[in-house]
Each structure stands twice: as structure tokens, then as C-alpha cells.
Amino acid sequence: MEQPPTEMPPSSPIERYLARLYDRYAGLDEGQVATYIPELAKADPRWFGISIATPDGHVYEVGDARQPFTIQSISKPFAYGLALEDRGRPRVLEKIGVEPTGEAFNSISLAPGTGCPLNPMINAGAIATTSLVRGDTAEQKVQRMLDVFSTYAGRPLQIDRAVYLSERETGHRNRAIGHMLRNFDILTEDPTTALDAYFQQCSIEVTCRDLAVMAATLANEGVNPVTGERAIERELVDPVMSVMMSCGMYDFAGEWLYWVGLPAKSGVAGGVLAVLPGQLGIAVFSPRLDAHGNSVRGIRVCKDLSTELNLHCLRVPRAARAVMHGTFDLVKLRSKRVRRERARRLLQELGGRVKIYELQGDLMFGATELAVRKIASAAALTDAAVVDLKRVGRIDATSADLLLRLTESWESQGKRLVFSSVQRHASFDRALAELAAAAPAGNAGAPDPRRTFVDLDSALESCENALLARHLPGDAGALAVTLAEHDLFRGLGPGAVAALQKRLAPARFRRGDVIVHAGEPADEIYLLTEGEVSVVIELAGGQAKRIATLSPGMFFGELAVVRGTARSADVRADSAVTCYALPKSELEALERSDPATRAVLLGNLLRHVAEMVALLTAEVTALLEG
Amino acid sequence: MEQPPTEMPPSSPIERYLARLYDRYAGLDEGQVATYIPELAKADPRWFGISIATPDGHVYEVGDARQPFTIQSISKPFAYGLALEDRGRPRVLEKIGVEPTGEAFNSISLAPGTGCPLNPMINAGAIATTSLVRGDTAEQKVQRMLDVFSTYAGRPLQIDRAVYLSERETGHRNRAIGHMLRNFDILTEDPTTALDAYFQQCSIEVTCRDLAVMAATLANEGVNPVTGERAIERELVDPVMSVMMSCGMYDFAGEWLYWVGLPAKSGVAGGVLAVLPGQLGIAVFSPRLDAHGNSVRGIRVCKDLSTELNLHCLRVPRAARAVMHGTFDLVKLRSKRVRRERARRLLQELGGRVKIYELQGDLMFGATELAVRKIASAAALTDAAVVDLKRVGRIDATSADLLLRLTESWESQGKRLVFSSVQRHASFDRALAELAAAAPAGNAGAPDPRRTFVDLDSALESCENALLARHLPGDAGALAVTLAEHDLFRGLGPGAVAALQKRLAPARFRRGDVIVHAGEPADEIYLLTEGEVSVVIELAGGQAKRIATLSPGMFFGELAVVRGTARSADVRADSAVTCYALPKSELEALERSDPATRAVLLGNLLRHVAEMVALLTAEVTALLEG
Question: Which of these, A41, A102, B196, B429, has the minimum number of CB atoms within 10 Å of its CB?
């Protein structure tokens, strides 16, 4: 397959760093190309490539990063993952241990008594692993490995026949191991099948770039970050990386963990692959090997990368600190439903008892514990809380459980805990739905039974409604009004209202009708007397976002009229709607015909718009600080 | 020392989980209390405690979490950290290896030839470690360990004399090891000193809660999360955790890494300590031991904790995904300097070429690479960018370097990259200052040489100024105006202006004067004719935050007058200021005396306030979506 040229900008500091690293070791000629398989001896000792792949699929590379070579022992962890998937962990652990041996790669380290290979990274364990990969014949096993390894690499991989034949011909030590495994019944059939599959598995051809993507697939919890395809079940990634960590570098494992600190695997063709979980896949290719059988330049580059880029897997960002994106309450942050003054005052007064927590990042125990503790510690001063998940990447089972327990606990105290932006978290959404509905006595009034909302705005509206229902029970925000009762006409005498009313005709709309279209010229202010409307803009992604929802007695379209601009948003009828259009020209004509009325209208408009500024200023301040 | 009662709310789901875990194993009576030291045999086999400490210093605990016992081998990693600090890594590594032995804790595993203990977690390595801790006498060494261990635990620790004497009397095997080490010159003096210090070190009395805090200190990069005191240099935390990871659980290390996956250490008094780097410290105490010498319930609890809470250290949150808090441009987000219409239109038109990136969390390679790549990829469409660090916890050396390289690269292309909210990142701030000042030819006009700003607002203002200086070179926003030229009087005839002017007196203020005080009644609108003022509110933390900066021709104080509320903010003179106060009563009097003038003034007020609504709405939308 033709690979596209890399799209890395030449100004990338990371690419320049890799180029410097390459230069640093390009002249290093310590070590020897492997010769125990004749075909491997043909490698050019000068070959040298470095690749780094990120969990969003970007690949940095330098040098011979596209030179094919055989995967050799780097196949072992991937085959182990396959065996775990095909046979299950208990069955595999029965046959193959997970303890490091402190011995060389080709040692025949079998546990005394059982004959179990001590781990799957030594040849004995790897051959046993291959025997556990699904398939009755060597060909079936090999095809399965090729399929899955190709998913890891993101391109179809093939076998280097010459190396395979050379391995098969000269692999006496491995044959000895195979028969020893058969002797202990670790292999239950003729070892030839497993051995033949194993020789082919080691002869799969990869590039340094492939290995980096394979490593990044492990770093990305089993999903190839370039293609988005899953190569291994998420639950099996930890065990694979664990054996790489403890046994991946043979008798160099302790030093490796100390100096590099990354789950890794090397192969005698010169490849080294390392994983920084959650962050990076790293691969180096250089065929000269040290006495441990590891690539000399590979080890040096990995050490420098780990030290200089601070990649040791035990040194991690303190994820929990970044979990809170923002913390607000209903005083600071409101839904886009516009409230009448009484309701607004009440929300100002009592809104501090409804808290809003925007979370961010992957929710795992550390982060969630902090968030849950923070939310729980506010419980005494809180009637309800909204947890927004819009910026949350993933919720693990523990975190889901902690949030469910918190919900239960709040509901048992007669409090409400709801979650917004839950669409991307389907299983958590389901679990919340399945949570036995608590029936707190104190809340009998008008509880909204919903625990989840599609966005923060709708969750806020629900919490506001609950607060208002309890404390302003008689509030009739949605009842129709007459023009005489309308906000815009406040302060006008009956005569002035009658005169205006004579010149205005009611317009009626059905639910869903668009009353005002964004982009059109703005010639009228609309007085809403019946039903509700929403002001809606379209976001960059095409998604609709409401700016305001208005009730009878309110008006809309005034901003564009005052500013002399085109309509900046659509206004849609949320129900059957009656409204009156007051033309700009009419307002201007009043300047001569009835300046006093005009002054009242301007004063009403001004007060209304000033109110909006106050609310928006509070919101901006909250969002910038929260 | 009397310890305060825990403040954990009883409703915490984590405490309830720990209680369930406790119940699950409270009845387990497998294993035997250690008897090889007579004093240890006195332990109550029923003792059982679990503690978890978070990196912000919260401690969960259940059972006998405050029962004192001796630290025993759990002292080894902490002493190793001390030896590294006192002698430096090379000197310590000369004497003690870092390879796991796969053997029992009391094995005499010395490397063939050199006689070096294979690692510092076996007794031989630990005794060699103690000999490297600073101090000429056993007492000095012990005092040093007590001091530092107490910093880890956050309370003064002491030695259990009875256990110490018992250890000293019966420690023949350790004495044999000491002499063997002396024989190989690993110990360079009489082994009695190291041995006596070692026996005391093992007899330091701790509780399960102490161990959890000690573990959390490692998780928190060496800083005790409860007291905030540093117990070990940050650079030495990785090596300590590395040897815990590879060698901490003796011949159980591979299984431990596979099933638990946390750097850990156990002791024969029944303690087990485990670290989830960046996230948690865990400790279990239960004196019954298995054949490996590890606490039976300790191992079970750690396995369950790791599995059920998903704590395996190779399974981590994908930190990089949470690095972008928000992405904006100057169209969406503006400084609080209020611009005249021409400038506003220009910013609307060209503001897309100035990008704003708010970063969040600890910046390490994975996160920073993503951020740098994202910023770099926008370079072609960008003239300048602001990177805000307000929500960044820490910038590691690699990340600082990547950001510096990006800055250089942008400046060499004649672009600007600036950083805001840098106060908490002093060394990065210094490094930016030391970066050779690039002198891009294309920017000769009016470049602001600053690379750092105290907050995002001031960085935005600088970028706006640069854009306006280039594209609106003649803009005289700060020049004094006459009342006739004032925005509020726009559209009035000369007669009307003269009539108003007669009734208004100029007020002059010096830089720093407070013209309007928050909380006072609002009776006047101020017309600014000379100098600049800022509208400032006080945030919850007492910090001042500007809401707006105004230039001559603009007015302030209108919102409170229109809304009939008290002043909501201070207005301060940023320079020598002249302004005219227009009393509310004057505006009302015009209703009868000159309704046409009043209508013009209301219209001007209305347009102005409507403009503010439009800007604020855009800002809110950007902040909610960004």
C-alpha cells in the first residue's frame, strides 16, 4: 500500500527535536546486526528510524521510518493480547505465568513442577501463546494474527517469506522449546503447528512507523488512532502492557523501568516499541543489537526520549486537577428563558442554592473522587445541582458508580442532582434511568422527574422552574396578556394604548413557524401577547442554539431595529403564538404625532435592554471566572 | 500527637465503598502474624484498616486506620529516596542495582563479581541503602530518617523501642548480610552502624493513615498533600516508584503488576502501601501474612481496589484531551476596552486572525504536543495568538521548551505569540523573557514587545491595539472631545447642545481617583470628554476585575440610572479625566421643557445599550461553546 506523505509542518518543534535526536545517534556504530538467522544478517547496519504517534493519530517520523523489517519478538505482546481475547484470561494464565525471569530472551524458563513458561515475552511463553491463538492450523493462526496486527498498524501487513523460511530452517532452539512444552502438556498437540505459526508471526514485515501506530493503539486503549478501528478489547490492554512492563526487555527489565519507565518490547531485527499509556506510541528501528539482544540505538533513543520529554509512565499529569471546567450557581448562570422581574429577583435571591458543575476530561477514580467530594461538600447549602458532561471524554465504570451513588444519596435527602449533555454517555444515561426512582416526601409539589438533559441550558431551565414552582406558586408567566398589559406599553395611558392598538394588527403563528429570519432587514418590533417564542442562532457546526425564550408580555426584534442592522437570529414559535408587529416607521412617526408616547416606549425599551446588559455582564463575568 | 477526627461526610460513596470492602475481608483469617521477631507476634491478628489519601489532602479511612504498628520494609523505598538525595543517583547505583530478583525478601541476592545487592527492596540492598543515608553514626542516620519520614507522614513519627530491641537481638540473618556487604566493600565501615540504623528504621511506628499520606506524598510528586511540605525532590520520586514497581513485592512483583499495577511496598508488620501516581496514596494494615511475607488482606484489598476502582497505573485518563479549555478569536472574545464603531467593525472583520487558546491542567509532553500542534496548524490563518495559562497547574521542562520553540518559530515568521496569566509560572516567564528578541522586519510599525501579560484581558487589549495600529493608523481614540462631539449628544442641534452645556459643570479627576463607588445611589450619567476611565468590580476573592475601559466621547453610569438601581461597580480614572455629570432629574425635566432633545438622548442611550447587548451576547455564546 502506498503511504501518503507525512503532513507534518516543517516548523514543528517536535520534528526538529527528533531530527536532533537522530543526528545524535546516527554515528553510533556499537553493536552487531543479528546473525543467528541468516536472512537478518542482510540488514543494513546504518538503517535508523524514529517514529512517534499520538492518540489522535498524528505521526512524527525521522530517518528510515518507512524501511520494512521483520517484527520478531515485538509480535509477542500483540499475540498475547490475541490469546487473551480468544481464550480468556483464566485459560491463558493457567498455561503461561506473568513473572519476569531476569534471564535472556531465549532461556527455557519453565516453572518447576507445572512446566509453565514464566511469562509470554520469553520464547517459551510466546510459543505457548501462539498455540492459544484461535485457529486449527498454522495458516489459520497466522491469518488471524495478520488480520489483527494489520488493524493495529492501520494497513495490511504481510509476511517476509525469506525470513520465515530462514527462521523455520534454523530455529532449533525454538523447536527444542516446543517439544519441552509438549512434554509438559502446555502444548496439547504436535508442536509443529504452533512453531510454524510462531516462525511466520515473527516474520511479519513492519516499518518503524507501523510500530509507532501499533504502540499508539495500545496507548489509545486498543483503538487505532489513525483509522479509529479497535484492535483489542479495552480490558485486555492493561494485561498486555503489564507483561511488557515487567518482562518486555528480558533481563534489562528493571533498568528499563528505572531509566525509561515505559511498557516496551524489542525485536532482534532492530525494532523497539514503547507505549506511554493514554499519550504516545514510540518506535525506533536500528538493527545493531547489544548483548541483551536489544537495539543499541533503540535503547539510547528511548532513554533520551523518556528523560528529555519527561515520559516516564509513573510521572503523570495530575488529571484530577483539571476535572472542574467551571463551577457556577443559578445566580451566576441562567437558562436562556427570559424571566419576569419577580421571577428574576427570586432567582437572584435563591439561585445560590442550585449549583452547576461543568466537568472535563476522562472521568476515572481520581478525577471523579475529587468532583464527587466537591459536590458532596456543598450539599448542605444546595437544593439541587447540575453536572454538565459536555466536555467529558469518557466515564469509567467506577466513576459512573460514584456519580450514581451521589445521585441516590441526594435524592434520599430530597435534593436533586441532574446531568446535562449526556448524549455521548449512553451507558451512564441508561444507568441513571434504571436507578430506582426515589420519592422524597419533601418534594411532592412539582418535581421534574428527569435526571438527564440534552444540554446545560435545558437543565438550568428545569432547575429554575422547580425553584419558582416552589417559591412563586402562583406565577402565571405563560398566560396571554392584552396589549394594554404589555411590557412595552407600560406607563401609557388608556388613550395612548388604544391609539396604538388601532394601528397594529395581530399576527398568529403555529408551533414551529419561523416568525423572524436571520439575515432579513429589521423593520419591526414584535409584541408577544400569547404563546412562547425562542430566539435561535445557528452555530458553526450547524447546530441550533437558543439565545432566549420569551413569554407573553415580552417583545423581540428590538435590538436589530435599534441598531439598524439585519436580523441576527431566527425567532421561532414554540407554541401557538399571537404577536403584534410595531413598525419602526410607526415609532418614528410618533416623534411628531405623539412625542410623549414615543418617549415612554423608548424608556421601556431602554430599561429592558439595560436589564439584558446587567444579566449578560454577570454571565460573562461568571464564565470567565468560573 | 492527637489527631483530629476525620471530616469525611458520612454520605460519601467512597467511604461507603471502603466500609463494604472492609466487611468483605474482615472475616478472612488466612495467614499468620509474623513471629520471627518476638515483638511482632504480639500483634492482634484481627487488626484491619484501610486508608486512601488524595493529592489534595483528603483522607478516607475505615477500621483500625489509626492503630500504630512498625513500618518494617515499607521504610525501604523512603530510605532509598533519602540515599539518592544524600549521595546522588550515580553513587547509589554504583552500590545497589535496580533489577528484580524474583526471590524472597530475605534472600542474599548479590550480583556475581561486584557483590552489589540486586535492588534496594531486598534486605541486602536496604542495608546498603541505609549506610548511604547521611550521618556518621546510627543515631544521626536514624534522626535524618525520622525527620524525613515525618515530613512524608505529616506528623512526628517515633521508634517503637521494644520492636527495635527485639529486631536488634534476633536479626542474625541481617547481620550476616551486613558482613557479606562489608566483605564486598559495599559497606565501607563496620556494618554495625548501618545495621543498627536499619533495625531502628524498621521499627518506626506508623498508622495505616500515615502510610496512605506517605503514599499520597509520592503520588503528589514528593509534596505532602496535607501539609504542603516537600519530603523528597521531585526528580527522585520516579526512581523510588520505579524500584517499588519492579521490586517492591519481592517474588510477587510480576503478578502484582499484572493484577494491581501500582508501585507498592509491604512490611512484615502487616502494612501495604501503594501509589497511584498523580492520583492516590493507598494503605492497608492487617498483620496476617502469606507465604511471600505480604499481608493477606492487604493484597486482597489492593487487588479489589485496583480492579473495582480501575486504578491500574497503566490505565490512565487521556490527559491530552483535556488540555484545551477553550479556543476563541478576537471576533468572539474581546478585551474590556470599549472601542468606537470604526475600530469595532475592524476587529469584527479582522479579529479572526488573532487566536486565543485557554489551556488547562498540567502541561506535560502529551498535552503540550497536542496544544502546540493545534496552534501551529492554525498559523497560516493567524497573525497573532494568545495562550492563556490561568488554568494550567504546572509546565514541565519539555512543555516549556515546546512553547518557547513555538514562540521563536512564530516570531521568525513575523507573527506574535503571547502568554497570559503567567504569574504562577515564574520559570517559564523568565525563559520567555530570555528568549532572544526577534526583530521581524514586517512588524516594524508598532509592535508591543511584551510576550507575557498578567491576564487574558490585557493580552487581548494588546493584540487589539496591534491590529488597530496596523489597519487604522490614524485612529485617535484617546483624544479629548467637546460636549458637542460627544456620543450622547449625537443628533442634537447646536442650540440644544448649548442649552445642555450651560447646565452641566465639568468635573476633573486625577489618575487613580474613584469617580463612582459601587453601592451608592445612581443619580447621574457621566459624559467623558478627556482621559480614560475603567469600570471595575471586586471578585469574590477580593481581586479587582475590569468590566470596561472607556475613552473620551463615551459615557458611564447609565445602566444604574436607567435600571433605577444602586451603582454596581466602581469607576476609576486611569489618567487625568474630565467628565460632565448629567443628573437624572435633568433628563426627566426635559420631558416637559424639551421633549425632542430628551428623545434624542434616549435614542442615543438605547443604541449604545443595544450595542452592548450584541457584544455581550456574542461573548456569552463564545464562552459557552469555546
Answer: A41
- Rounded to whole angstroms, the Cα distance separating A528 from A502 reads 17
CB within 8 Å: B563 and A614: yes
Q: Which amino acid is at A282?
A: I
- Which residues of chain A are in CATH 3.30.750.24 domains? 319-471
In this complex, which of B311, B321, B617 lies closest to A616 when CB atoms are compared?
Answer: B617
The 10s digit of each residue's pLDDT in A207-241 is: 999 999 999 999 999 999 999 999 999 999 999 99
B614 touches A: beta carbon within 8 Å:
yes
End-to-end CA distance of chain B: 50
Task: Write out the three cell numbers for B307.
Answer: 480492579
Q: Which of B93, B258, B362, B604 to mutate to test the interface with A (most CBs of A within 10 A)?
A: B258
The CATH 2.60.120.10 portion of chain B extends over 483-625
Of residues A11, A391, A559, nearest to B614 (C-beta) = A559
Which superfamily does A483-625 belong to? Jelly Rolls (2.60.120.10)
Q: Does A41 touch chain B (CB under 8 A)?
A: no
Strand duo A324-329 + A354-363: pairing: antiparallel
Highest mean pLDDT among A456-465, A477-486, B76-85: B76-85
Cβ contact A366–B623 (<8 Å) = no
Nearest to A570 by CA among A506, A530, A519, A510: A519
Q: Report the residue count for chain B.
A: 626
B313: which chain A residues are within 8 Å (Cβ-Cβ)?
313-314
CATH 3.30.460.10 holds for A319-471: no
User: CB of A12 within 8 Å of any CB in chain B?
Assistant: yes
Q: Rounded distance, CA B613 to CA A196, Å? A: 75
The domain defined by B13-309 carries CATH number 3.30.70.20: no
Is any Cβ of chain B less than 8 angstroms from the Cβ of A7?
Answer: no
Asked if residue A296 has pLDDT above 90, the reply is: yes
Phi, psi of A327 (to 5 degrees): -130, 125
| Chain A residues near residue B352 by CB distance under 8 angstroms | none
Measured between alpha carbons, how far is residue A396 from residues A367, A368, A400, B280, B390 in Å?
11, 10, 6, 17, 28
Q: What is the mean pLDDT of residues A56-75?
A: 95
The Cα angle at residue A37 between residues A31 and A40, in degrees rounded to 5:
60
| B263 contacts in chain A (CB < 8 Å) | 314
How do residues A480-513 score in pLDDT, each as one tens digit?
A: 899 999 999 999 999 999 999 988 989 999 999 9
CB atoms under 10 Å from CB of B354, counted, come to: 24
**pLDDT tens sequence across B35-48:** 878 888 999 999 99
More confident residue, B443 or B570: B570
Name the residue among A602, A507, A488 with its Cα closest to residue A556: A488
Region of poorest pLDDT, from A263-277, A320-334, B378-392: A320-334
The structure's pTM equals 0.86
Q: Is the pLDDT of residue A268 over 80?
A: yes
ipTM computed for the complex: 0.84
Q: Is A409 on the interface with B (CB under 8 A)?
A: yes
> Smallest CA–CA separation between A54 and chain B, in Å?
8
Interface contacts (A, B; CB < 8 Å): 359
Strand partners for A548: A535
